[in-house]
Amino acid sequence: PEFCEQMMGVLLARNLSIGSCEFDGTIVNNLDEAHVLYARSEICKISSIPLAVALEAALEQKVRDAEKLETECENLVTQALLGEPAEIAACWHGICEEIKAQIGFLPRLSGLLTDAQINQLVDRQLQDLGKVMHALHAAFNAGDTLEISDSLELRLLPWLRQLRGFMESCLVLVKNLHR
């Protein structure tokens, strides 16, 4: 187990890589699992992938997720005018979950951005999102489908486009860094 821990440290520190460790086909997620499996294992495999490659793949996925989220929001703009309030609310809850996943990814950009930059970015994004959510919450409570549609189109969509643009900028930066 100490060897496994040392290898992971070497991969992270020297090769700028992240790795996985598996004992007899079982991938370990932490050192406690490694300690349990190590004593009775026959085969230990340690693999790594450069951090830049992993971050690039994650950012590409987040950009695709952001594009999908924008499309869902655009569809909800029209649906808000035509649909039933319960359907609109269900779609809205799905969009909220996807927004949380996008925001939750931002702290993973450490190494690309400083902790202070990430904190400032997250704080600013959350403040802006809070304003949008407040307007949408009021529109939902009032049952004002026109205001729901307008808030989605004029407030949330620009916010989502800005977030996607940021993710695209990070992706370009990562691609340029490791080429």
Describe the protein's architecture and organization.
It is a single chain. The chain has 179 residues and is mainly alpha-helical. It is built from six helices and three strands; from the N terminus they run αββαβαααα. A three-stranded antiparallel sheet has the order 2-1-3. The longest helix is centred in the last third of the chain and has 33 residues, at 145-177. The model has no long low-confidence stretch (mean pLDDT 81).
Helix-strand category: mainly alpha
Unreliable segments of 5+ consecutive residues: none
Shape: elongated
Q: Approximately how much beta-strand content do the residues carry?
A: 5-15%
Mean pLDDT: 81
End-to-end separation: 34 Å
As a percent range, the share of helical residues equals over 70%
Indicate the radius of gyration in whole angstroms: 21 Å
Q: Output the number of helix runs.
A: 6
Q: Mind describing the biggest β-sheet?
A: 3 strands, antiparallel
Number of separate strands: 3
Oligomer: single chain
One letter per element, helices H and strands E, the order comes to HEEHEHHHH
Q: Strand order, main sheet: write it out.
A: 2-1-3
